[in-house]
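User: Quick sanity check before I run a bigger batch. Here is a single chain. Can you write out its predicted 3D structure?
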Amino acid sequence: MKKIITLLLILVAQASLVAPLAQSSSLQASDAYIRTMPPGLTTTAGFLSITNSGSTPCLLLSAESQLSDRLEFHEHLHSDGMMRMRPVTGGINVPAGETVVFKPGGLHIMLFNIQQPLIAGESTRLQFNTDQCGILDISAEIRSLVAKPMGGMHH
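Assistant: Done. Predicted structure follows.
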């Protein structure tokens, strides 16, 4: 009997290790996009808004993408009259009932070591891993780094 109980405990423990991760029901993303890269570069940035409609805060611990083997949360800070970018350590807090905005010149996601060209108009998946709010899996549009020319202008 003792062996059967031990075997059952082992099987339950193994099953919990491979159980699917819960999708986040309290986090929603909007306007998610990743910039294209200039030729020769392998790093770009991603932007979006994440809203926590739940009653508990959510901590974004990490992000993943098929495009990159390394994603980091970064922020821009003004220091000694200069704009500096630095990694954010400890995750990103998304308070209950609030929205965190990842935007150019502020908080953003850096994608490193991208080996294939990014094509404007296509989309890719991003996954955000949290402390207690499950996984947020989203689609992010690829947008051109170069602004579109203004139409109707004549010289």
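The radius of gyration is 20 Å.

User: Great, the batch can go ahead then.
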